[in-house]
Amino acid sequence: MRCPVCGGSSTKVLDSRESAERTQIRRRRMCDACGHRFTTRERIEEQLIRVIKRGGRKEPFDGAKVRRGIELALRKRPVDEDTVRQIVARVEHWAATGGGREVTSEQIGARIAHELHDVDPVAYVRFVSVYRSFESVEEFEALLREMEKAERARPDGQRTLFDDEPARSRRGKS
């Protein structure tokens, strides 16, 4: 690892720690030549996941887009940053470990909706209304009726299966 100040190639690792999500390692280093201290982060290089958009266009998976969609749905809701980070990490992990190199934007949206469902029902409705492209009040009413029906049908503490649970078997393979 080269020093960002003097370019020296000899450094010592002073401290190593795993991130809370256990997806990367943070290292504090010191340059042997100039004594400058700096931080590096190591992360496993994952295979490139391609997202197939509704129109058929393909683009690289972007965790920042996932985060923006989640943050928009959760705007002014009582959900902390750590919860948002955990949801994003679970969606990224799901995309990376699903077995294929391609995933549709619909599957990503379904996965995000699944993650938001138990975190915040209002955020879930906000997200699903965009994800499913709601165009009328009746579509909101139908979703709310569906949620009420599922809530009444489930025993306390038991998670329900709902239409937004993304099926892995439908993921594209390449």
Along the chain, the helix and strand elements come as EEEEEHHEHHH
How many structural domains? 2
Strand content: 15-25%
Number of strands: 6
Oligomer: single chain
Net shape: elongated
**Terminal CA distance:** 35 Å
Radius of gyration: 21 Å
Q: Estimate the helix proportion, in percent.
A: 40-55%
- Which regions contain 5 or more consecutive residues with pLDDT less than 50? 167-174
Structural class: alpha+beta
Could you describe the largest sheet, including whether it forms a barrel?
3 strands, antiparallel
Largest sheet, spatial ordering of strands: 1-2-3
Could you walk me through the main structural features you see in this protein, from its secondary elements to its overall organization?
The protein has 5 helices and 6 strands, in the order βββββααβααα. By secondary structure, the chain is α+β, with helices and mostly antiparallel strands. It folds into 2 domains: 11-43; 50-159. Strand 2 (24-31) and strand 3 (37-43) form a beta hairpin. Helix 1 crosses helix 2 (81-97), helix 1 crosses helix 4 and helix 3 runs antiparallel to helix 4 (121-131). The longest helix has 17 residues, at 81-97. It is elongated, with a radius of gyration of 21 Å.
